[in-house]
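Case study: Methylenetetrahydrofolate reductase.
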Amino acid sequence: MAWLERFGAGRGGSESSNVHLAKMLENHSIEVMPRTAAKIDDFRALLPAGTRIYIAHIEGTPIDDMVATARRLRDDGFAAMPHLPARAIRDAAELEQWLRRYRDEAGVEEALLLAGGMKRPAGNLHSSIDMLKTGLFDRLGFRRLHVAGHPEGNADIDPDGSSAEADKALLWKQAYSERTDAEMAIVTQFAFDAKPVIAWAERLRGAGVTMPIHVGVAGPAKLQTLIKYAVACGVGPSLKVLQRRALVVSRLMLPYEPDEVVTALAAYGAASPDSLIERIHIFPLGGIKAAADWARERRDALQPALAG
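Here is what the predicted structure looks like once written out:
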């Protein structure tokens, strides 16, 4: 319970924040890569039944490995959500083949749609919008579709440092969700400070976006590991949180844990009933077990808040 007291829970007026935080943690998602999943003997010993597990499709990963991982997770009682990186897919025909394999071989009818980080597209699909325009998801029964969000910007989408193109794309996807039966949500890049995430979410809501937001947070990891990933992934101003921590020698050797950012998000959500921020998505940069243990310990500590 020490972490609750450290970040403000348990003090006057924090009960609603605790309840909100408990719900965000109870419904969290996490992601794995096929090669990482192969090293886990039993996901059921780590994660609650029904947890949504995103399957990251890294460049060069065979589709056979992706489908096999999805099938294993589904068989074990989890919601498997494979990444679909547009730039790794040659054309609509190959996209259809992948979708049919996920549906028919693994029982999966949901996906995270991404442009993908490949410098050279494999074919004529360059973005998640390109994939949605094929009409395949609706035709093949993929009803839950998540898309990427970038609270701190994305230089690949908006090289000028603005958010104009990224905002336009999210508004297009919002319209798509309204004219189809798709259940859509936005899952974000990981961040280390709640403030830019909250400001971004409020701006989207003001623009007419109603899709729920699942905020990405980095699971427990060494500080050096996180800084490396953050720089590689283009994390924006919130990287300063890690850099400030690195200047404090006594904290440099301690593993980072995302308590500060998630409690701040929960406090905001409790005070803002119309918030789009719904839950958290954990990037297990320090290992799946460490991330799963962190989430479980926090959930267990917050059970009295839910029971009350």
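For the exam, be able to explain this: DSSP finds 14 helices and eight strands in the chain.
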